[in-house]
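User: Fold this; C-alpha cells only.

Assistant: Input:
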Amino acid sequence: MTDIDPAGVKCVVWDLDGTLWDDIAVESATDELPTPRPEMLAAIDALAARGVLSSIASRSAPAVLDRLTGGRPEVRERFLAPQVSWQDKSESLRRIAKELGIAVEALVLVDDSPYERAEVEALLPGVRTLAPTDVPALLAAFEGREVTPESRERVHRYRTEETRRAESERFQGTREEFLRWCAMRLTVGAATPDETPRALELAARTHRLNSSGLTPDRLRELTASDGHELFTARMTDRFGAYGVIGAALVDRTAPGAWSVPLLALSCRVAGRGAAAAFLFWLMERARQAGAEEFRVTLRPTDANLEMRILLRQAGLRRADDTPGAAPDAALLARSLHGDLPKAPPYLHVSDREDAEA
C-alpha cells in the first residue's frame, strides 16, 4: 500500500466475502452468516473512534444484508448506507457517497478481489482500493492525528442523519415545511480555543462547501496573526446537535473591509440553508463593525460548485483589481451598503454571546 492521506478519508467501504469474513455467505447451507474476522471488527471500531465511517459494498444477494440486520445487529450497526446487490462495486460506491453526502474520492475500498479493486480503480480513479492485508497500514496512517470531539461523535451523528432522512421521507408536506418542523438553530460567534482543532479539520476535510481550500497549517498561521479572527457555527435541531459545522477566517487588516480567506462548512448541512445563514451573518457583522466592503477568496474546484453558487447569490462578484488575490484564486467582493440577504426563514440564527447571556 502506498502512502494514504488520512485527512481525505471519510468512509472506508468493506467487502463481505473474503474480507469481513472468510466464507461466502450465499453458499452457506443454513441462514447462519459466516463469523466476522475479529481483527476487521477491531479495525472498524478503531476507525470509528477517529471519526471515520464504515460502509459495505458486496456483490451478493440482497438477502445477506437482511440476514446481517436480523442475525448480527451488533455487526450491522457498524455500517452506514450499506450496499449488498449484484451491481458493480463502482456503482455501489457511488450510491454510498450519495447517501452519506460526501465526495466519492473520500471513500476507501477494502476488498480481497483484485478484479473488484481494478474495476473501481478504472471507473472511480479518485477512490483508493486496498487488500485486507493493507488494513494495518491504513490504521497506522491515522496514528498520532488529533481527534476532535466532533470526530469521536461523527459515526453517531451520521446515524442520526439517517433518522432525519427517514423522517423526511415520511413527512407529509413540502421540503421547506419539513425544515421548519426540524426547528434548526444556528449559533455563530468567535471561535473558542477548543473549537480551533475542529476548524482546522473542516479546512482539511470539506470540499463541497469550502471556498478556498486553505490548508490547516496556513489557517493556523493566519488565525494567530494580528488582524485576523476565527468564527465558528454550531447547529442543532429536534434530532440533536450537529456540533461545529462551520468555520470562517476573517481578515480585518484592510481599511474598511472584511476579507474571508476561508469559509468552510460540513457537507452534513448541505441543502439546509446553514451555509447561506453563516455567510449572511458574517456580512451583517462586518457592516456592524463599520466595514463597507465584504470579500471572499474563492478557489474554484470540481467539488465546490455549491459554494460558488452561494457566493454569487449573495451578490459577490470578481474583483480582479483588489489586492490580495492568489494566482489560483479569485477575490470576490460586494458592497455592504443597502439591503443584505437574510437567512432562510426556517432557520433561526443567533449570536453565541446572546445565546449564552
